[in-house]
Amino acid sequence: MCSTDGVKVRIASYNVEFSRSATPEQIGEMLRPHDFDVVGLCESPAGDWTERVAHAAGLEHWFAGEVSSANHKDKYKAILSRTPLGDTDEHRLGSGSGWNPASVVSATTCVGGLAITFSSLHICASGSSDGHAFELATRILPTLGPGPVVAVGDYNNRLEDDAMLTLDRAGMRSTWRDLDLDLTGAFTWNAFAPDNSRAGVIDHILYSRASSGQVRAGGIIEMAQPLSDHKPIWAEIVFPVG
């Protein structure tokens, strides 16, 4: 959508826990009413699973990677989009002392005449310079673009952790920093054990600071009956044009 102040893009990210607790149609039907332009999924099963979610969500275009997190069964990364996807790619990550491999799937799409590079990832918790986040910041993100870059997924780090600060210094800003939300006590894992969850908010939507994007809305999608051990997150960002 184009307006006088830019292009509005509605974005979501969801770790679907290899569809253990919901069908792809249930996940797609949950996403559909939110009218998202692009969605990043992680821990997605193989086969036609991503296509089935996309169809149920009303998103015609999709791309799924081929690197499964930690070589586990059915933990792939995927992108769903309302507009066509181009320059699809997958970037393998394998550094640090945690689980390997990780990966990032990326694609470009055009929303309201603006080309955006969108990435969906699943990485391991790490420090400032010895793991997936550092590798993402120094090796992958600099190759994406031009234009706005958005990187969503399960980062397995809280906003204040060194790994996330490394990404911030690399020019990627979290939508959580722009939203007027109190995240104290909030969490995105484990949705099935709310009384015992101490992980905090470990799922994030990042956008390139150079894009001059403005975050207008966003948050954690709460469900009475969770469809995964993670909660979906979302944001609405307006990117200037011209």
Helix/strand layout:
Elements (H helix, E strand, L loop, with lengths): L1 E2 L2 E10 L8 H8 L6 E7 L4 H9 L3 E4 L11 E6 L3 E9 L8 E10 L2 E9 L9 H9 L8 E6 L7 H8 L2 E3 L28 E6 L5 E7 L12 E7 L3
Parallel strand pairs: 2-3, 8-9
Antiparallel strand pairs: 1-2, 2-13, 3-5, 4-5, 6-7, 7-8, 9-11, 10-11, 12-13
Note down, in words, how this protein is organized:
By secondary structure, the protein is mostly beta strands. It has one domain (2-237): 4-Layer Sandwich (Deoxyribonuclease I, Chain A), CATH 3.60.10.10. Helix content is 14%, strand content 36%. It contains four helices and 13 strands. It has helices spanning 24-31, 49-57, 132-140, 162-169, and strands at residues 2-3, 6-15, 38-44, 61-64, 76-81, 85-93, 102-111, 114-122, 149-154, 172-174, 203-208, 214-220, 233-239. Strands 1, 2, 3, 4, 5, 12 and 13 form a seven-stranded mixed beta sheet that branches. Strands 6-7-8-9-11-10 form a six-stranded mixed beta sheet. A hairpin with an 8-residue loop joins strand 6 (85-93) and strand 7 (102-111). The longest helix is centred in the first third of the chain and has 9 residues, at 49-57. The mean pLDDT is 96.
